[in-house]
Amino acid sequence: xxxDADFIVxxxxxxxxxxxxxxxxxxxxxxxxxxxxxSDNHPLVKMPFGLTWLxxxxxxxxxKSDPQKGLxxxxxxxxxxxxxxxxxxxxxxxxxxxxxxxxDGWNVKGWEWPDVEPAFEAVxxxxxxxxxxxVHPLVQALSDLFGGNANEAPTPEYESAGTFRFNMRNARRxxxxxxxxxxxxxxxxxxxxxxxxxxxxxxxxxxxxxxxxLDGTKLSASKGIVLSAGSIGSPAILMRSxxxxxxxxxxxxxxxxxxxxxxxDNLHDHPAAGLHFAGPRSGYGLTLSQMxxxxxxxxxxxxxxxxxxxxxxxxxxxxxxxxxxxxxxxVQCHFIPFMLDWKGSRFTHGSGYFADVCACRPxxxxxxxxxxxxxxxxxxxxxGLFQDPDDVETLLAGLKRLRELMSKAAFGKHRAPEVxxxxxxxxxxxxxxxxxxxxxxxxxxxxTLRMGEGTAPVTPRLAVAGVTDLWVADASVMPSVTSAxxxxxxxxxxxxxAKFISEDTA
Length: 506
Known about the structure:
Blueprint: E1 5-10, H1 14-25, E2 31-34, H2 43-46, H3 51-54, E3 63-64, E4 77-78, H4 100-104, H5 113-127, E5 130-131, H6 137-142, E6 160-163, E7 165-166, E8 168-169, E9 172-173, H7 176-188, E10 191-193, E11 198-204, E12 207-213, E13 218-227, H8 230-240, E14 243-244, H9 246-251, E15 258-259, E16 265-267, E17 271-278, E18 285-286, H10 291-304, E19 316-320, E20 331-336, E21 350-359, E22 366-369, E23 380-382, H11 389-408, E24 418-420, H12 428-438, E25 440-441, E26 470-472, H13 487-504
Parallel strand pairs: 1-2, 1-13, 2-10, 13-26, 14-15
Antiparallel strand pairs: 3-4, 5-7, 6-19, 8-9, 11-12, 12-13, 16-22, 17-21, 17-24, 17-25, 18-21, 19-20, 20-21, 22-23
Helix pairs in contact: 1-7, 1-13, 5-13, 11-12
């Protein structure tokens, strides 16, 4: 029987699109890319401001975390893209490699900074990320906070602030699907299939041979399968396939193919907490005076690619040391020059802006486990937020310094007072409570299939340990999260995965 493809890639997200495209370019055989969701051919996907409607829509997996003990048993949204481009089709397109020593700190052979830098350069040659133009004056004012980078994007390498870089072209989203997948479809006959949600992988002995879709369809791969379904999807598929903690799988009636105790462990994300500012003539918002601008916004975007619909909401921010004790940043600030609600409504009247702090290198860890062998049942997602008290203390110090920086910024006539939690919330105890009451994440889940030696679920060459012809290429393989947004590192991982796989199967 002829196989359906030589390689099947599961998940057309930021990493998966690049794995599939690069495998096709390397001429390793027939490559089939599977995506559970629909196409990304939708005006809200391409329009930067469209993410405000896409998050929580049918193009989002709409996962929820388990009740988080560190947050008073609150559940958090875990937004993950469900369409071509994956989370890269619903994110804010912020582009950071991370810090050089993030990769050195992974302590994984072949993944130090000199090893990964060429892959970043190759990806960026296609993506061509640039600083956003036409940012709000509030964002422009940030670039003077630390000096020395007034005309450059901030970097997690040292204290800096200003307008971020984004993977956009002509004020439109330019994802891995655009830069890699579509050109490969045209040039190298890459096959792409949407609406194809994978239940599990079928093995013959320890060899991965087929993927089984939710509708029962079986698709076979003669050379191998690559999991690129993300830090939630990839470990869930792997466990449903019988690769994971044996006792957990047996409890769910899943036949164990390979006992891999750490599958699903090490789940973590950047914890964050923020400050809301509101006042006339400050940021964008729903006010009577701004109604004409909002009414014109669709037309300005459609005909000139300008205006507030050209904004991905997060236009800039900063990196700084929360306690001012070294020159190395340990928190990132995302700055949004839009009025955000803090009272529980989706929309709120008024003009304002928002700034948060995220811990760059959180210490807390959670884990992912299945609740059922049924793929229609979402897994248990325990982000483990604030299980290590040091993360709370970093955000506490970060919020204090953020207040100082916001008061120092040359906002001029656009300055607004802090309205939530408000300056009266100033004691350490009160701010800690604010962090626990309102803390969330930056939607950067990583780590559930960490790569490494020994008991790590995935090898440094991104092969799944204990089985054959199966690889993982997405943010789940990160031993620890990078010090900024994770979209760029995910693409780098996808690019390197294709190189490893093509070499190891030649």
